[in-house]
Amino acid sequence: MNATPNTSTDLHKVEPSRSQAKLLREYAIEVVRALTSRNYIAYFAGGCVRDEIMGLLPSDYDVATNATPEEVQQIFGKQRSLMIGEAFGVVCVHQRRGGQSLQVEVATFRSDGSYIDGRRPDSVVFTSPELDAQRRDFTINGVFYDPIEEKTIDFVQGQNDIASKIIRAIGDPFHRFAEDRLRLLRAIRFTSRFGFSLDRATWQAICEMADRIVEVSPERIATEMRKMLSFPRGRRQSMELLHDSGLLRAILNEAAVLLDQSKPIRLRSLSRIERLQTNNWIVALVALLWDDLQSNKIDAASFSHTIKDRWRLSNEEELEFRFVVTAQKWLLQADNSPWSQLQPLLLSPHIESAISLTELLLEESVSDFIGVKRALDRMRETLKQDIATWNPPQLIDGRLLIEMKVPTGPEYAKLIRLGRAAQLDGVILNDQDARRWLEEMLARSTSKECSTDTL
Ligand code: ATP
Ligand code: MG
Q1: Domains in the chain and their CATH numbers?
Q2: Residues with C-beta less than 6 Å from any ligand 1 atom
Q3: How far apart are CA 269 and CA 240, in angstroms?
């Protein structure tokens, strides 16, 4: 097996360091050895074998064995093992070593029982290595490796497909996608992540079955979308394949509609997600939909709510989406935006995400954006400084308003907001300024010429 690790790859979202990967691999070998020394069969299985053949650093190791979950737990003891999917025969074997928490998933060779509604199998049967390979999704994911004998065990010709860079369903693709429709998305994800091509029959089945992806649970769809939009390298191809197969229309019609609008919009949107450097999937989603968000064809507030509902996203993800969109109004002209508009943006945990999109959008701008770029750099510098230096305590607050006998009402909140802006923009520098400013505002609001609307 060719195991020359390629550390410069961006194919993994969370890429382990070379030393972490080495430690984990050694631990996984120990786990295999503990099983084989007791006369069980145990192999590396799934993604780690594929990654090692490709010269990539696996982010985790899975072991497949003929020991039952109970036997695995007996060997490693309850302290070092945890049943994580008893019904599926999966035990997580773990240990802390060198300050690192090591864990390996040990699964009993199995063959999946019947599938209900194209979701997950409702039962499993423990079987042979060969049948376990057959139940896996794609040939590249179906190869075993024996790390003790240093031998590859390949029942599905996965090595050939890795060498030819092909994603091919194991067995009849229609049948395999009908069993678990999530595999439709997984096929696209692996293809684009590795820059492979799809086997013709596998692609045909994906196109014909695309509409049925909606039968998969929203959480599983969201997990795949997060992954596809996270890997910078595969993002563009993922979205193109999702679009061309009809999957995008089924799960993110807003993007399908946008990509169908015109060739320039399609190319611009795809190039945008391709150029985006960050691993942040929310930023990638905004970047993909930007043309329609900007023109308000897609309303950011209602879309973020819809997508949260559709994919069961977290509140934080919804907030981030909305912030990244709305902050652009000020960030795209950061050199002309008042500090009172920019400073509150810095208080958001999502400011870095928003700036990464701004920088991307600026690259598309025909006008000179050097001033904006400098302003964004200054914002980043500010963020590095102690928050007290750029976020001073309010000079106009409730206490002062009570003292100055401002009646509670709608003006109250407005005065605090405007007072804060005046303070940040340098109009109010101290307590004395604050009182003077407040008196002026109150005088204006009670004078005949100015209604309270001026507040
Ligand atoms: P990644 O690096 O993205 O984790 P992976 O191949 O390790 O890729 P996992 O989802 O961790 O993917 O699954 C581990 C293995 O389990 C796969 O390589 C595959 O053999 C099998 N597998 C996972 N999901 C499915 C599925 N839906 N249908 C069939 N086999 C699957
Ligand atoms: Mg994995």
Answers
A1: 1-164 (3.30.460.10), 327-390 (no CATH), 398-454 (no CATH)
A2: 46-47, 62, 136-137, 141-142, 180, 182-183
A3: 11
